[in-house]
Amino acid sequence: MNMPSYTAAALAERFGLGVHGDGSVAVESVGTLAAAGASQLAFLANPKYRGQLADSGAGVVVMREADAEGFAGTALIAADPYAAFARIAALFEPRPERPPGVHPSAAIDATAEVAADAHIGAFVSIGARSRVEAGAVVGPGCVIGEDCVVGAGSELIARVTLVTRVRLGHRVRIHPGAVLGADGFGLAMDNGHWLNVPQLGGVVIGDDCEIGANTTIDRGAIEDTVLGEDVRLDNQIQIGHNVTIGAHTAMAGCSAVAGSAKIGRYCLIGGAAGVLGHLEVCDRVVITAMSLVTSSIREPGEYSSGTPLMDNRSWRRNAARFKQLDALARRVPRAEP
Amino acid sequence: MNMPSYTAAALAERFGLGVHGDGSVAVESVGTLAAAGASQLAFLANPKYRGQLADSGAGVVVMREADAEGFAGTALIAADPYAAFARIAALFEPRPERPPGVHPSAAIDATAEVAADAHIGAFVSIGARSRVEAGAVVGPGCVIGEDCVVGAGSELIARVTLVTRVRLGHRVRIHPGAVLGADGFGLAMDNGHWLNVPQLGGVVIGDDCEIGANTTIDRGAIEDTVLGEDVRLDNQIQIGHNVTIGAHTAMAGCSAVAGSAKIGRYCLIGGAAGVLGHLEVCDRVVITAMSLVTSSIREPGEYSSGTPLMDNRSWRRNAARFKQLDALARRVPRAEP
Amino acid sequence: MNMPSYTAAALAERFGLGVHGDGSVAVESVGTLAAAGASQLAFLANPKYRGQLADSGAGVVVMREADAEGFAGTALIAADPYAAFARIAALFEPRPERPPGVHPSAAIDATAEVAADAHIGAFVSIGARSRVEAGAVVGPGCVIGEDCVVGAGSELIARVTLVTRVRLGHRVRIHPGAVLGADGFGLAMDNGHWLNVPQLGGVVIGDDCEIGANTTIDRGAIEDTVLGEDVRLDNQIQIGHNVTIGAHTAMAGCSAVAGSAKIGRYCLIGGAAGVLGHLEVCDRVVITAMSLVTSSIREPGEYSSGTPLMDNRSWRRNAARFKQLDALARRVPRAEP
What we know:
3 copies of one chain form a homotrimer.
Chain A: E1 6-7, H1 8-15, E2 18-20, E3 26-27, E4 29-30, E5 40-43, E6 60-63, H2 65-68, E7 74-77, H3 81-89, E8 101-102, E9 107-108, E10 113-114, E11 119-120, E12 125-126, E13 131-132, E14 137-138, E15 143-146, E16 149-150, E17 155-156, E18 161-164, E19 166-168, E20 173-174, E21 179-182, E22 187-190, E23 193-196, E24 203-205, E25 210-211, E26 216-218, E27 225-227, E28 232-233, E29 238-239, E30 244-245, E31 250-251, E32 256-257, E33 262-263, E34 268-269, E35 274-275, E36 280-281, E37 285-287, E38 292-293, E39 301-304, E40 310-311, H4 312-322, H5 325-331
Parallel strand pairs in A: 4-5, 5-6, 6-7, 8-11, 9-12, 10-13, 11-14, 12-15, 13-16, 14-17, 15-18, 17-20, 18-21, 19-24, 20-25, 21-26, 24-27, 25-28, 26-29, 27-30, 28-31, 29-32, 30-33, 31-34, 32-35, 33-36, 34-37, 35-38, 37-39
Antiparallel strand pairs in A: 1-3, 2-7, 22-23
């Protein structure tokens, strides 16, 4: 691996940023404001960390113009320092080589199609009538079942499963252990036994989506489970059958959406939060961590449930009172005495 | 794939249903009441959707007798339309071919037994003394360790792991990423370090169980972890060591049962709900989503914990008061003034 | 498999225990106090089970000295019977053979290093510049990416993924489906689209750690995600990027720690509990199941959130009052009437 190196001025030119101080400083990697050294670039976005700036050893710091006043070092000036940092950091990201071609161990059905410039790793199996498009990467140990599409430029990092009827758009990234297109959980009780309801739909994933490690997205019962473009799912998320998630929505780890719920665009779902089945959540809704959505949300805004953390002894006392809350409330005077 | 086609009359005959209207209508697939076309069959089970019936383009609709009165189209009459639909829909389910035989890439221990009509997919490994019975399917990428049994007619869709001492009954289905038989989480603190308690038991899964994607079921410490027949587990569920789950119980996604708990028969455990270790939950208990069972349940019925979702500002105000609840309660007059 | 057999006296000698009664009794396996037979060894640690002692058919029982008074059978006397049992039980644990050597199907990059006495199973892939040290076991279906280290004596049971820049210490055990080193969930909103923030760090796992099935540990954004020595993670846990977890901390199934949080040493995190990002939790903190840590914890102790389980009808009444809690509190008299 060659070490890349860029001057501050070259980075400013490349990403349309301003330069404050000495543009000839060379950047060879990135670091945190607290720990970066003379050949490293750091960033200051959150005002909370402004105090670290004076002591930072970073050769270059990306920051807002206002923060650069009086800064003695080299700064790159950006309206959004975090986004600018993200773009610059990508220059220093070591990327594994995924050359075009099919690993000799791969088991590919005769009816599947693989683009000439796609990469198919070791121990990959691809089922009947599936298609891997131009420039796509299917990492080691992935299983692609029947009637799937891996869109152009998409990347299945490793050990991803697309069960059946999963169609990925362009530039979709899926992390290891994710399972898309497994049977939705559709059951009918029939004379004391469960009867499976066939899950005939598929999964459709929009362009530029990202799906985290060990996340599961079930296929639809009759119609499809659908993610709009640029939806971002963290790890260990569960998406039930026939869910739809609007474009640009991001969900944090361990959250879950039950069957047939519809989530809007630009929503932020916190970690381990849940949405019950068949509900609708409108655009631009924020759900805080571990909250449970039990009825549809029609207004944008931030929503929460749960109780605050307490020392266990206090919690026991207060939680016991929760069981009496209705009775207590009936005894509270209507107006302040 | 040939497109199957059945007349309404043929479906009625096959599944013991009544016919209302023209029995000669041909059904080539299934759809939703709202979206189905002339060659499709839909169903009406939930009265909430009765309003969609008049406008439905479905060629045939499965419904209760009472709903068919005055219906101008073709109906199939069933006491339980959803179950009847499930059976009919299965006729239209595309099923991947899993012909008998062992994929040449499979790595099978010399002491393992595989039935002649079982299907073993690509990149499957099977350990010492394990047995795959008649008609079973072991999809691509599965790992079966030592001393396991895959019962007759069972199906491991893909990338399932049976670690060791896992015995599946007949017709068990397991979805990708599930891990059965990993070490239970048994630890003893010993002079400031954790000591592993050997997990010598196994996992026993009853006939007709279904295990969702990325669900984990640990093996027992001394005795076995046991699921009765027809237990249905959704995705991302965690079952601790030595748990027993009674027949016909269904658990929704992301729920969890801690070690040595006993869950009864015909229970319904909601999404992300939890049951603490060593508790007993009797038959026919319903736990709503994200509730936590902290003591044994001796009476059938529906149980819940948690607080309702609110806009974040209201939630903060109310949640802060939860910390004062015991103190508040002490100040509430004993009887209404 | 030969059946091992040890006399009580031999076990006492080996593990430094006292003998009460007949030391010549032979032990061939272990069992529970309730179910063990004459050739089995059981243990009594929890006083709650003392009542089972008189009726136990166990040939030998490990117990505290005080419990052995008046016990007619053979006892092994230990200060900590559970830890002593754990050590004895390990003698009876069937362990799969994992002989040194590389399975012919494995796909190992030319620049990777594998110790001569390491075991590499079927369908394993190992990427560029990765190293598997002495005595390590990499079970079937594992994927090891670029620049990883599997430390001496470590064991990846099966189907584990180390994505990139993951360094395991010595004697680390990882269960199937775990994914270490996937991209942290780092996003910047940029003109209405999400922009990925490159995740340039790695994951460092201390000696003697254990990582459960389907657990995920993301790699750091700039610096590393770090687990100290002897950290024990159960199944289905999510550890965000740049988290640090102190030595000897144990986390139960389905718990989660969001990005950049710091957890202390000797903490116990209950099942499905969560810690929000950027918080600090000091040493020796216990978090009960399904609690959410929303601010830093500076004092050792036990902490909880949530409400108690109730029958659903009572819960609905009380939960509805939670929405009025602040208003109610304002109407409660300041002092008791």
